[in-house]
Amino acid sequence: MDLSSSNQLQNPLLQKIAQTKRRQSKIRDSHINLSHGSGGKAMRDLIDDVFIQSFDNPILSQLEDQASFNLANLLQQGDRLAFTTDSYVVDPLFFPGSDIGELAINGTINDLAVSGAKPLYLTCSVILEEGLPLETLRRVVASMQAAAKNAGVQIVTGDTKVVHRGAADKLFINTAGIGVIPTGVNISAHNIQPGDAIIINGELGNHGTAILIARGELALETDIQSDCQPLHSLVATILNVCPEIHAMRDATRGGLATVLNEFALTSNVGIRLHEESIPIREEVKGVCEILGLEPLYLANEGKLVVVVKQDNADKVLAAMKTHPAGKDSCIVGEVIASPPGVVFLKTTFGAERIVDMLVGDQLPRIC
């Protein structure tokens, strides 16, 4: 019986047999080699055994060159699509509190969430270095699936490439995401106005510090863990009490300082921060003092910056505090009319200093 016949494959039983046969493919190598990116049987076995087995869902199981969706179903959830992409090259791959796989899923989810969108579908493309242990790849993929399941999203398509030893740093991941923005939600930095309040959902700099310590290049010990977490549920809680959020962004590379500088330039306003209101762990401050770093520029992977009309600030803050990802939320500053495009920090001594855009690379390879 020819299972490749298009007519015969319309039979559900034969489809199931073909699917089962495909899923029985097992990769027997212990490390990635160039044949795993050749497009032949070794690559198919790798995809079946590592990726399909972990990410399996009805859309992905079609194994087409693209994922297709029912537009009518999407339109029932909102009137616009949000679409984003990001690449992850963190070193080390595993660090206190998270790893590159969870980071890739949550990072893309959060880029969608800050538009107000409900994240639905993700892609997963990987660049593997020759010699990467298969067990390392399996750990990363399992972490990605666990993060996707926890967030209620599906990984529906992807790609795999293998490069020569030394041409990459073990494993790079690119993810893209699609979400639906509810009708009536319009979150943009262009909405920011003088008088608005600035709220964050907790301690800053934990992720950047955890990565730095995990590299083992410094004789420092700390129990700080990455704050990597999905934020879409927190965003939904915020929008439930106040759909009129002016702006929202996750403070990843460049930290809080870079996000606020981007806001100030986009909306042509000034921003004043209050140092005494900004939550930063003493351990993070200590590491920064030793290394000459500024905590406001340190990377985060689970921190949200919300800009909201002052009249709505208290109810938004109260709602955020009811959510596990927002229990430590606080108001850290306000928007001012002038000078436009400038971010100030009012220090604990009462003086003010300018917090400029990050110049150079304070902490490389953090996401």
Could you characterize the architecture of this molecule?
The structure is a single chain. The protein folds into two domains: 29-181, 60s Ribosomal Protein L30, Chain: A (2-Layer Sandwich); 189-354, Alpha-Beta Complex (Phosphoribosyl-aminoimidazole Synthetase, Chain A, domain 2), CATH 3.90.650. Helix content is 32%, strand content 21%. The protein has ten helices and 13 strands. The strands form three sheets. It has a seven-stranded mixed beta sheet. The longest helix has 18 residues, at 134-151. Mean pLDDT is 91; it is low at 1-9.
Please give the count of helices: 10
> What's the helix-strand series?
HHHEEEHEHEEEHHEHEHEHEEE
* Number of distinct beta strands: 13
Strand sequence of the main sheet, in spatial order?
A: 8-10-7-11-9-12-13
CATH topology of the largest domain: Phosphoribosyl-aminoimidazole Synthetase, Chain A, domain 2
- How big is the Rg? 23 Å
Q: Which percent bin holds the helix content?
A: 25-40%
Major sheet attributes:
7 strands, mixed
How much strand content do the residues show? 15-25%
Query: What is the CATH homology-level superfamily of the largest domain?
Result: PurM-like C-terminal domain
Mean of pLDDT: 91
Structural class: alpha+beta
Report how far the terminal alpha carbons are from each other: 50 Å
CATH architecture of the largest domain: Alpha-Beta Complex
Domain count, please report it: 2
Shape: globular
CATH class of the largest domain: Alpha Beta
Unreliable parts: 1-9
